[in-house]
Write a structure and sequence with these properties.
Layout (H helix, E strand, L loop, with lengths): L9 H22 L8 H18 L21 E3 L9 E2 L2 H15 L6 E8 L2 E8 L2 E7 L5 E3 L2 H5 L17 E9 L2 H13 L8 H9 L4 H6 L3 E11 L6 H10 L9 E4 L1 H13 L8 E8 L2 H7 L9 E5 L3 E14 L5 E12 L2 E7 L3 H6 L7 E6 L6 E5 L24 E2 L8 E2 L5 H12 L11 H9 L6 H6 L2 H5 L6 H14 L1 E3 H7 L7 H10 L11 H5 L6 H11 L2 H12 L3 E3 L6 H4 L7 E5 L6 H10 L3 E2 L9 E4 L5 H8 L3 E3 L1 H9 L1
Parallel strand pairs: 2-11, 19-20, 21-22, 21-23, 23-24
Antiparallel strand pairs: 1-6, 3-9, 3-10, 4-5, 4-7, 7-8, 10-11, 12-13, 12-15, 13-14, 15-16, 17-18
Helix pairs in contact: 1-2, 12-13, 17-18
Bound molecules: 2-(butylsulfanyl)adenosine (IVH).
């Protein structure tokens, strides 16, 4: 029996409050300041202690870090109307346009004195409004059309740098709308796309789309798996506090533990502003994120008020847009690199050129179709673009510069790493090497297995995997766990300490979570998310042995491709032998993701409903009932729906349901179903 909050002893309440305070502080050190003061293990230890106490005493406070996760998927986003419109910014592309902006401001303010401006980087992401009431995050909404946005509170709460509660050492207003941008680091964007490519999912065009796509997810579990960041740069409605300047606002945000722009310069006069812009521009390639410009704002809020707004933009601010890092060079040759599932991805060897301060001699291409679509040929002059530290990509060939000697690019008919044959699955763009013994695939599989989101073996990155593989020390996953220190010492780059560190890291990785282990195995199409869904349904690894594709297909969100790949993997006796061997070598799996009986015993567990037409209670209430009883409410029709609840005037969904042979029930049928 869980205890009631009233009977919770005072010292336990104090302990829970202390843990929350400490955990929130460490979260801030890690995610906002990027300078943690405790190890990940220590953090996990405190977190587990908190979870244990919360569960035992059923005493859960709103600012507990445990409240960031676990919200159920939504059916759709509610609309939110912004207290003050979220507007856009006017752009300037040259220094002259900035000088013109400054002149206009002086004219409107009827002054000849230099104006004080702030200059900060422009973040390229998704604009967000965070509403805090009495210091607590009450709502997070997207910009939408500027007046009405979408309620994405559950998703935003999963972003650890977003404070759930405003740090109380700052002066906390009764109400405040804080505005900022959600964005993604370039390295995380590249990793995300690489994984999506490996698992055959559509790629995001740029970090901005990836950030927006990650926030606008009905299931917060997807958002939490994406690494998102926040930079706060402004406010909407406030009551209970008076800010006088942008500079002061940013300082307050900092004290209140909000992440703020990486640079904020306060300057006098437009010349100084231009120098600050140049400073930001020169740091562009050093920032871990993409910035496409700098924002100049009149520092004084009184003056901002006088200057006011045009229809869509303020008169007191402007965005200076940096030139994209583009250049023209010659494409010498297209080559293919082989990934862990055998996918052969093309890349281009370029005549070296300088772009944004670095020399570029390679460029990525997503797949062979892209080469055809863009009509890229060997020998072409091409336009390349490099954004931040992303590997540059080819925009287009300059067809007018062709001489006739350019060569069409052939799709590979053998593996560039091992000369084996290749194949292309129906409906897939990817070309794959068919060999199971391909050295490139083997090494990529090992790199993936040891990587951070998988078995997390420190010191077993690309370089060391290559070194150990080429010296015959590792080939299969199990070889990692058979490694001894002595042979390592014979290799270049390894000394007593580094060899011991690697052995220790391998030892440590033996205790892993089932979801990470499943991801590590590199089963085609199984990314981090699918791996977690599996761990939610299967309490232990052995339960997956010889699993049927239909069983997997029953899990919501798992389609044919995924089900076949998973079932194929766990029905292969060689794979099962490997898994057993890994267990013998000491791999111990825990499964905190497993949704135990509490959920599975709910009467509608695992059932997916779709509602159409008018039923006799408000639709939202019906949805709540279904979710409370363990069911899931879908937003569109598909063969995965178990029951279509049809009310009056059911519309086209009813016909579609009939054509898909779905079970169609009335609201009354539903009631009698749950009364059982
Ligand atoms: S201030 C009245 N500051 O850029 C609008 N916006 O292109 C004031 N943005 O909608 C916005 N970084 O989403 C401001 N440092 C920054 C920004 C920034 C990125 C976004 C914002 C805005 C868009 C306009």
């Amino acid at each position: 029996m869980k205890k009631q909050a009233e009977t919770v002893p005072e010292y336990i309440k104090k302990e829970i409050e202390r843990l929350i305070k400490d955990l929130n502080y460490h979260c801030y050190r890690y995610y906002v300041l990027d300078s943690p003061v405790i190890s990940d293990e220590e953090y996990d230890h405190l977190y587990r202690k908190l979870v244990e106490l919360e569960n035992t005493y059923n005493y859960i406070l709103p600012d507990s870090p445990t409240q960031r996760i676990g919200a159920p998927p939504l059916d759709k986003f509610d609309k939110v109307s912004h207290s003050e419109p979220m507007l856009s910014l006017d752009n300037a592309f040259s220094h002259n346009e900035l000088i013109e902006f400054d002149r206009r401001i002086k004219r409107l303010l009827e002054t000849n004195n230099d104006i004080q401006y702030t200059v900060e980087p422009k973040y390229d992401g998704l604009a967000i409004e965070l509403t805090y009431i009495n210091g607590f995050l009450a709502k997070a909404s997207t910009r939408g059309d500027g007046y009405i946005g979408e309620d994405v509170t559950q998703n935003i709460k999963t972003i650890r740098s977003v404070p759930i509660k405003i740090e109380s050492s700052a002066e906390v207003p009764e109400y405040i709308d804080i505005r900022g941008e959600i964005y993604m680091y370039l390295k995380d964007f590249n990793k995300l796309n690489k994984n999506r490519e490996e698992s055959g999912e559509a790629l995001f065009a740029n970090p901005r789309n990836a950030a927006a796509g990650s926030v606008r997810q009905l299931d917060p579990a997807i958002t939490i798996a994406r690494k998102l960041h926040l930079a706060c740069y402004g406010i909407g409605k406030v009551s209970g506090k008076d800010f006088k300047k942008q500079e002061e606002l940013i300082q307050w945000l900092k004290n209140a533990r909000f992440p703020t722009p990486a640079i904020l310069r306060t300057v006098t006069g437009i010349e100084e502003a231009i120098r600050a812009i140049d400073e930001i521009s020169s740091k562009r390639t050093v920032f871990p994120f993409e910035t496409d410009g700098a924002v100049i704002k009149v520092n004084d809020f009184e003056l901002q008020k006088i200057l006011g707004y045009k229809t869509r933009e303020p008169r007191w601010a402007i965005a200076f847009k940096f030139q994209a890092h583009q250049g023209v060079t010659r494409l010498i040759e297209i080559k293919g690199s082989v990934g862990r599932t055998g996918v052969i991805t093309p890349y281009a060897i370029l005549e070296p050129l300088r772009l944004g301060g670095v020399t570029v001699s390679r460029s990525t291409l997503h797949n062979w179709d892209e080469i055809e679509r863009k009509d890229i040929r060997e020998g072409d002059y091409i336009v390349v673009e490099r954004a931040g530290d992303v590997i540059p990509h080819i925009i287009m060939p300059l067809k007018e510069r062709r001489t006739g000697r350019e060569r069409l690019i052939q799709r590979p008919n053998k593996c560039p790493a091992c000369d084996s044959g290749v194949m292309r699955e129906e409906g897939e763009v990817a070309i794959r090497c068919v060999s199971l013994d391909c050295p490139a695939q083997i090494q990529e599989r090992l790199i993936h297995f040891a990587s951070r989101g998988a078995m997390n073996i420190d010191g077993l990155g690309e370089r060391n995997v290559n070194l150990l593989y080429s010296n015959g020390l590792i080939k299969h996953f199990e070889d990692i766990y058979k490694l001894k220190k002595e042979p390592l010492l014979k290799l270049p780059r390894f000394a007593e300490k580094s060899a011991q560190n690697l052995i220790d890291a391998i030892e440590k990785s033996k205790n892993a979570q089932l979801s990470k282990f499943l991801f590590a195995l590199g089963i085609p199409h199984v990314g981090e998310y699918a791996a977690r869904m599996l761990a939610e349904r299967f309490s232990k690894l052995e339960d997956l042995y010889n699993v049927k594709a239909e069983t997997i297909l029953n899990i919501k969100q798992m389609g044919d491709k995924l089900s076949n790949a998973i079932s194929g993997f766990f029905n292969d006796s060689k794979n099962l032998q490997t898994l057993e061997l890994l267990k013998e070598l000491g791999i111990k799996l825990t499964n905190p993701d497993f949704k135990d009986d509490k959920d599975t015993k709910k009467p509608l567990h695992g059932l997916i409903f779709l509602i159409t037409g008018t039923v006799s209670i408000p639709r939202k209430e019906l949805q709540d009932i279904i979710i409370k009883l363990g069911g899931h409410v879908a937003s569109s029709i598909s063969h995965k729906i178990d029951y279509l609840i049809a009310g009056q005037d059911p519309g086209s969904k009813l016909n579609k349901a009939k054509s898909l042979n779905l079970k169609i029930i009335s609201y009354e049928d539903f009631l009698s179903m749950i009364s059982k």
